[in-house]
């Protein structure tokens, strides 16, 4: 029996040798290559490249990256001025945001790696929004992989939109609206104004679909370079805090077209803005709740006086967008973010702007820039009622009659 078993094994072994020789070289199993890289017992981030098992313990291979800059930011001795310069806010405001987002963005440690802390996750997102730097530089600053940084930015922006937007970007209550009306009336002499509205454009890389819809003719003509964009329509209160945002419509659309597509327009038609005004630029139509300047060439003294006052209200929203783009430099650069992810990123910027404004965070004068005016005279299909025209004429007459105009003619 032993001899038979030995002969069978020898036959099988010879058969396998013959089989290997007959197989083409490309079909043979290649030996496993060893990677001369650093092996560590526990992960140092979410950028693991490969794994192996030695000594009964799972080990991960990761690229060695420096976290020196971020570690210095976390140190109590890190200068407050440098922290503000990097993150556009004080450490106290940053800690508040981290605390509010902790329950959503926090991850648990695993057997393979330690989770990235909440503060670092939020910091990656805010620094990216603040500087607009490419992801490879974000990776170097925080010692994380490029794909990890991109993922963190989107996750934190989504968390800001989900958790913080309902709290920090909402339409004012009835009591708060009375304060807004009073403050706008002090500025302009015009009663019942509850908001100042403006629309700006955010540059983007030409999309793969519907390219013509995102083509920005005004920016292209001004810069002599083909430009594509998406829009952000915002309404702000007397302090420059956003109370309503409409984000994501293509850059080829005019201000009045964007307004007609917005949820604000639907709510206004439902009675939300009855007997009150939102001041808009010349790109918007005159309606029962949108108050805009006179646009004809030859203005009367009364009409000129009205335009001067309504411009005082319009300046509030334009300056708010100037600070928005000044703080969050990513809004002035063509971003790597995909088109479908941009609304969450832009919404996060608006929410972070509100938090900074509410907490009186001063903006570095070096961050200020000139906001190019995108206003055009509206050729709107929205209905202009005779009552709204008469109401504007009455306001203009009252301003001049009561000595509130303060025009340059005097």
Automatic annotation (TrEMBL):
Gene Ontology cellular component annotations, sorted alphabetically: nucleus
Swiss-Prot/TrEMBL keywords: Hydrolase, Metal-binding, Nuclease, Nucleus
Cofactor: a divalent metal cation
Location in the cell: Nucleus
Boundaries of every DDE Tnp4 domain copy: 198-354
Chief localization: nucleus
An example molecular function term from Gene Ontology annotations: metal ion binding
Superkingdom assignment: Eukaryota
Pfam families, sorted: DDE_Tnp_4
Stretch list, region Disordered: 20-52
Family indicated by similarity: Belongs to the HARBI1 family.
PANTHER family: OS05G0593000 PROTEIN (PTHR22930:SF244), PTHR22930
Protein's name in the database: DDE Tnp4 domain-containing protein
Species per Swiss-Prot/TrEMBL record: Papaver nudicaule
The organism's taxonomic lineage, starting at the top: Eukaryota, Viridiplantae, Streptophyta, Embryophyta, Tracheophyta
């Amino acid at each position: 029996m032993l001899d038979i078993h030995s002969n069978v094994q020898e036959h099988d072994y010879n058969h396998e040798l013959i089989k290997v020789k007959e197989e083409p070289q490309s079909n043979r199993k290649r030996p496993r290559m060893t990677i001369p890289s650093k092996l560590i017992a526990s992960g140092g981030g979410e950028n693991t490249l490969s794994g192996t098992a030695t000594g009964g313990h799972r080990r991960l291979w990761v690229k060695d990256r420096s976290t020196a800059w971020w570690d210095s930011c976390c140190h109590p001795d890190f200068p407050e001025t440098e922290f503000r310069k990097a993150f556009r806010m004080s450490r106290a405001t940053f800690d508040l945001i981290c605390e509010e987002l902790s329950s959503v963005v926090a991850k648990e440690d695993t057997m393979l790696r330690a989770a990235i802390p909440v503060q670092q996750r939020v910091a990656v997102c805010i620094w990216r929004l603040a500087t607009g730097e490419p992801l490879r530089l974000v990776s170097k600053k925080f010692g994380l992989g490029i794909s990890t940084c991109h993922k963190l930015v989107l996750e934190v922006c989504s968390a800001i939109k989900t958790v913080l937007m309902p709290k920090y970007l909402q339409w004012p209550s009835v009591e708060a609206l009375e304060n807004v009306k009073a403050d706008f009336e002090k500025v302009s002499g015009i009663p019942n104004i509850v908001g100042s509205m403006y629309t700006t454009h955010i540059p983007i890389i030409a999309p793969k679909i519907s390219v013509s819809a995102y083509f920005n003719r005004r920016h292209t003509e001004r810069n002599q370079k083909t430009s594509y964009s998406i829009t952000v329509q915002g309404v702000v209160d007397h302090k420059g805090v956003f109370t309503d945002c409409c984000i994501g419509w293509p850059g080829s659309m005019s201000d009045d077209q964007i307004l007609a597509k917005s949820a604000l327009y639907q709510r206004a038609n439902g009675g939300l803005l009855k007997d009150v005004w939102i001041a808009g630029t010349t790109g918007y139509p005159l309606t029962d709740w949108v108050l805009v300047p006179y646009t004809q060439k030859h203005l009367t003294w009364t009409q000129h006086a009205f335009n001067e006052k309504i411009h005082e209200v319009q300046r509030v929203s334009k300056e708010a967008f100037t600070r928005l783009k000044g703080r969050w430099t990513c809004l002035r650069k063509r971003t790597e973010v995909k088109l479908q992810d941009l609304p969450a990123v832009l919404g996060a910027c608006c929410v972070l702007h509100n938090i900074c404004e509410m907490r009186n965070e001063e903006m570095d004068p070096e961050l200020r820039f000139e906001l190019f005016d995108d206003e055009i005279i509206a050729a709107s299909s929205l209905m202009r009622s005779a009552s709204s025209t008469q109401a504007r004429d009455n306001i203009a007459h009252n301003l001049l009659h009561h000595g509130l105009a303060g025009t340059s003619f005097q």
